[in-house]
């Protein structure tokens, strides 16, 4: 079993910054892709940013230039640095990891429990 634990959410004024963290633990052989998604009230969950094990990244157009995703493979942790936050960034942010498990090398998708980010105007 694998667990993802997120931290770093909170309330911030527009133009401010927050840094989210997501640490994975459990029966991990390797973590392939790690990503952040978000879901605002009444909306579908959407991809915010993703990062491969090798460090390749992709971003939603709405956050390009403002958010930066990074990861520490030794700590099985992914980060999301969010700058120049806008009220429309308000959502619950979820971490997702594609994990190859051990001892049986199967690949599974895991989600964190979510962390609330609220940006006031």
Proportion of strand residues: over 45%
Q: In whole angstroms, how far apart are the ends? A: 41 Å
Total beta strand runs: 11
- Judging from the principal axes of the Cα atoms, what is the shape? elongated
If helices are DSSP runs of H or I spanning 4 or more residues, what is the number of helices?
0
Query: pLDDT average, as an integer?
Result: 96
- Secondary-structure class: mainly beta
What is the chain-wise order of helices and strands?
EEEEEEEEEEE
Low-pLDDT runs: none
State the helical fraction. Answer: under 10%
For the biggest sheet, the summary is: 7 strands, mixed
Multimeric status of the protein: single chain
Radius of gyration: 14 Å
Short description:
Helix content is 0%, strand content 61%.
Key structural traits:
121 residues; 4-stranded antiparallel sheet; mainly beta
Description:
With 121 residues, the chain is mainly β. The N and C termini lie far apart (41 Å). Strand 7 (67-72) and strand 8 form a beta hairpin. It has no helices and eleven strands. The strands form two sheets. Strands 2, 4, 5, 6, 9, 10 and 11 form a seven-stranded mixed beta sheet that branches. Helices cover 0% and strands 61% of the residues. The model has no long low-confidence stretch (mean pLDDT 96).
């Amino acid at each position: 079993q694998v667990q993802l634990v997120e931290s770093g959410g909170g309330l911030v004024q527009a133009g401010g910054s927050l840094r989210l963290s997501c640490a994975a633990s459990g029966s991990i052989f390797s973590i392939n892709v790690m990503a952040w998604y978000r879901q605002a009230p009444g909306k579908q969950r959407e991809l915010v940013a993703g990062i491969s094990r090798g460090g390749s990244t992709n971003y939603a157009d709405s956050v390009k230039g403002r958010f930066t995703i990074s990861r520490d493979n030794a700590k099985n942790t992914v980060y999301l640095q969010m700058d120049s936050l806008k009220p429309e960034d308000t959502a619950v942010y979820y971490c997702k990891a594609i994990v190859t498990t051990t001892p049986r090398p199967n690949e599974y998708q895991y989600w964190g429990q979510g962390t609330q980010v609220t940006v006031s105007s």
